[in-house]
Amino acid sequence: MPEHTTPAPPTKAVSNGIAPPELDLPYPDRPEIITSNLLKLTELASDQRKRLIFKNLVTHLHQFISETGITTEEWMNTIQFLTRVGKTCTPIRQEFILLSDVLGASALVDALNHPAVGGTTESSVLGPFFTDDAPDLNAGDSIASEGSGEYLFVEGYVRSTSGNPIADALIETWETDSHGFYDTQKAIRDIPDCRGRLRTDKDGKYSYRAVVPVSYPIPADGPVGDLLQLMGRHNMRPNHLHLVIEAAGYHKLTTALYPEGDQFLASDAVFGVKKSLIVKFRDVNDEAEARRRGFPKGGSFKLLEFDIVLASKEEWSATQAQLQKQ
Ligand code: BEZ
Ligand code: FE
């Protein structure tokens, strides 16, 4: 067995090996020269796309600093804030994603990359509560343990843009319980709850039992929570059901459905709501129907009917090609 030895520390400090650039770089003794020198340096990156990204990053960051007149104290506070964001991240908590979410960056990237085309179902933010251990369920099964909330039945069809049924599409879905918690937020999580994986049948139909989700706060006990306080913004998401749909030959869709009437729809803390994703729950007050659909306690339930339209891989590539040209 080879022995693992710790490499000896270097005896001489060395550069990264890149030679000084052959560029006209005046000494940065005026603020605007710092920006123009750095813009010249961004041209050194070998990849065209990265050159564009660095150029825009430098332009907008420097513009933000100059136009805002950021003070040294404010900039140090910003750096300390970002340091706290990094230190708050753990294997199960991603505070940087949360920061991207509340600043609208996640939703903007998603909106620009997933424009609504050809009647496809629109996308929404994934959020941090997806897990890959949701149980496989059959049509009509429940994703939620009994007592997790008010009964809800969800059903619909998955189709192509030309209306053809998509059989064997995989739907992964997750939601909060009636207290506004995902299972991963509970102190004890023996088995996954309020989440499941199911497949469409030969007609593209899917159905499952769930519970009525409730609006809930995104984590407020870290630096992102402090930022929202400073901005005078609430940290609530309107109630929703998350869905990720995958099918062979189709572009994977990450979306969420938002029942109408929630007071936080228009001011969602993470900008996930789109008009086309607002849905209506129908009240079904029919004991026999509740039992027929498998609700153990019978009584009444809410019904959500929602059809999903996926873009084929070809339609998706054509849209992306169009976006690149713009
Ligand atoms: C969510 O919907 O699960 C979520 C999305 C963004 C931030 C926090 C939560
Ligand atoms: Fe959520």
From TrEMBL:
Keywords: Dioxygenase, Iron, Metal-binding, Oxidoreductase
A Pfam family the protein falls into: Dioxygenase_N
Cofactor(s) this protein requires: Fe(3+)
Intradiol ring-cleavage dioxygenases domain location: 128-310
GO BP terms, alphabetized: catechol-containing compound metabolic process
Chain positions covered by the region annotation Disordered: 1-21
GO molecular function annotations of the record: catechol 1,2-dioxygenase activity; ferric iron binding
Keyword hit for Oxidoreductase: yes
InterPro entries: Catechol_dOase_N, Intradiol_dOase_C, Intradiol_dOase_core, Intradiol_RC_Dioxygenase
Residue ranges of domain Catechol dioxygenase N-terminal in the record: 47-118
Entry's family note: Belongs to the intradiol ring-cleavage dioxygenase family.
Name of the protein: Intradiol ring-cleavage dioxygenases domain-containing protein
The organism of origin for this protein: Piloderma croceum (strain F 1598)
